[in-house]
Every structure is written in structure tokens, then in C-alpha cells.
């Protein structure tokens, strides 16, 4: 079941098209990575999904029905990259206030805040002002404020900003727990290694357009280049490595990286070493990282001219 369905969404400003005909679906309980360089249209897209902006064209369906900001906003938790905490307000007072804004009673809000403060071991922060906290500590408070009303759709924009490795791992595990419990998560970040570790599906946007959309595993397969890393039991000579089945990319001691030729197979590569009496200690395919795919695809789209709103047909 899809929790969120976005169809042909468009948002134009005076000088450019911020979002230009983007469509995608997110199934319930998935962790969906929204990727793109600065100025790609990600923030505008998120603000339309949360009801902050209205689209010029297109439709949004949330939880099986057309999106209604007044009705559906309580179903969403949005943690923006720019912190939205009141600097002079005390932590406990502020989290209680934000929970009440999401429709929780004072009793419900107090119970949920206590649960999360216990879980994150931050009860001693209750009477501290936000501006007395470090950047990482503020991030933990903002995370709690975003999730304590149990949203169906959770939007996290750079949630690990300012966090040390221990607290990053703490937040990451909570993201996984929430997804297992059925929360649908949109995760926006520039840290591609986090995308590979956390997301099951990604969409890449640039210049207001969707560039690619698919599962992390499938995208890595789609962009593979026939590269293999092979461990050898002996150091071969040049004559033993000569073959039309692959091209040597690099070789260091007893490890060789090769690029398989178009008409060959992995069996052809292995048979070559068997025929040359070269023992193989390991054989692994080298798949591209999401970071490599990101850079390649963005660089390609950067060559295309930018469409402006003024160019849109009347």
C-alpha cells in the first residue's frame, strides 16, 4: 500500500521552475531517500507535501485520499534542516507546547515526552533553555518534537547534522524502529553513505526534474560497469593476463581489478585464470556507490539548459 502518491507536481516562481512535473509513490513503512544538489527543488517539494506551499499543478494523495492540509497535517512529522526551536524557551516547556500543537492532550504529551526523554537519557535537560544546548543536543530535542505524536509520514531533512557518532547511531536505530512499526519516512541528506545504509528506495532530482527513481539495490545494478576485483594466489606475468575477455584496470600485488568485455561472462573470466593455472582467492563484483551515481547523473543534467517559468506555455 502506498502511503504517499505524488502525481505531476509543479511549482513555478517568477524566474524558474522549482518543481517541474515530478511524480513518485512511497509505500507504507519504507525509508525513501530524497536526493539532489543544492537548489534542485527538494525543499519546495517537501513544503508542498507538508502543505506549506500549494502546487501550481498536480496532485498529492496521503493515506489513501487527496491531501487536505487542515485534516492531514497532524499525520505528518517534519524536521527541517533549519532548526525550528525557540532559543529562549526551556526544553521541557517547548516539547510540551509543540506536542499540544499536534493535538495531544497535556496528559498524553507529558507521558510521551517522558518516554522519549528517558530513552534518550536527557531528563536533566528539562529546565535548560534551547540556546544552552549544543547543536547536537538541539538536534535530539528537535527529533523528539517531530516524532512524539506518532506521525504516519515522517520527513527528516539532514537529521544527523551536528550529531557525534554515538548519537547518530541512536537516531539511526530509532529511524529503523519507526519504519518497522509502519511509519513511512522521507530522508533528505547530502551524505550518500547514509543513504546506502538507511534507505531502501531513492529519488534523485535536479533542476526541478526527477532524474532517477528506484530501489537502492536496483539502481546500483543499473549503473554497474562490469568491474570485478579478483584476489590471486600468485603474481601473474603479463602473458598470463592477456585475454579478450577483460581489460585490466589496475593491479596491486596479488589483487587485480578488471573490466569485463561486453560479450564475455563472469565464467569466461574465471575460466581464463583456471586455464592459466592461477589460483583465485576471491572474486567480487564492484558496484557503483550511490555517491558515484549521484555525481554522474547530476553532472549530466548540469549540461542541459535551465527552463524558466517564463518559458512555460500559456
Automatic annotation (TrEMBL):
PROSITE patterns: ABC_TRANSPORTER_1, ABC_TRANSPORTER_2
Transport listed as a keyword: yes
One Pfam family named in its UniProt record: ABC_tran
Domain ABC transporter: 4-232
GO MF annotation, one: ATP binding
Keywords tagged on the record: ATP-binding, Nodulation, Nucleotide-binding, Transport
Superkingdom field: Bacteria
UniProt KW Cell division keyword: no
SMART domains: AAA
Family: Belongs to the ABC transporter superfamily.
PANTHER family: ABC TRANSPORTER ATP-BINDING PROTEIN (PTHR42711), ABC TRANSPORTER ATP-BINDING PROTEIN NATA (PTHR42711:SF5)
Name of this chain's protein: ABC-2 type transport system ATP-binding protein
